[in-house]
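RECORD CONTENTS
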Amino acid sequence: MSEKEQPRLASALAQKVVDTIAPTINRNVNIMNAHGVIIASTDAARIGTHHDGSAEAIRRNGIIRVSQADGSAGTQPGVNVPLVLNDQLCGVVGVTGAPHEVEPLAGLIALTVQLLFAQEREHSRSARRETEARDIISALIAGRVAPEVIDRSLAAHGLRGPKCIEAWLPRSVGDPSLEEPAKDHHRTSWISLSGAYWRLCAASETAFAPERMDQERFLVSAPVEKAEDLMAETEVLRVLVGYPALVPSHARRRMWSREIAVAIARTPARSLDHAAAPAMQLNEEQARTLLVVATAASMSQAATDLHIHRNTLVQRLERISQVSGIDIRRSSESLKLQHAIYARVALGQLHVF
């Protein structure tokens, strides 16, 4: 609902307020819409009938107090208080009784309706935004929607400029971060699809607070502007989350190769055993050592990252060559062994990420 639209007071919400409050105050309560028609009441027979006192309150946009009963007009002592929602007059709350006694009660009921209306409106808005986000992310994962349709959906959602898509494998489905609401023009909420939780966000957003970053296993696409690029990045993430063991914790990201992980994730399942064969004799320490060396800037840096002496590292590499029967000093052979390690990770035989 836009800010300029006339707010509509739902009869179900109004009746919920009446049913909750009326027994406590032991008074007859009516809630009328902007036309003076009763939409909620302690007397069900009156729902749908016109209420003269509320029409007067609406016309004057002020409180109407009735001190004396009028049998011919069917009125009873009480007050009729205008109900304002979203800064617009949209109904009236009527409570029977001595005006000086029930006017504060009528005001309290009106305030309750206002608060519940705002809460329900925000909930509806959040639900709509989540549905829109789910539709966009589903379309990106499916990869069968025209890029221009994705672009229009993103623009309508307020996500313009460089953006990323994230895929997260939380340690618990009860993680409070999963309940983070969408942030207009910055991010969507987390959406559960295809074995992971997904979120679209502006490129400037960070996935998690620094203090928890290292422990989380998540993937973030490169920042992109165009829908076709975002679709390509989403396809890569979709393939990777199909093998959760290939998704590294942030602390292991430096030793992880996205290119090798994607290549193995796209390898037919029937071929993984064959791809893993060269690394079958390696243990997890040896596998991790080779991957750190392959991604480090130098042997000294690799030794530092592994928290071992450089000479110890050299001995480990020699042992890796002996065990695997592969000369890892040759880059092509080393790369073959790295692929084999990733294949064993995908098969659940090694846990290095």
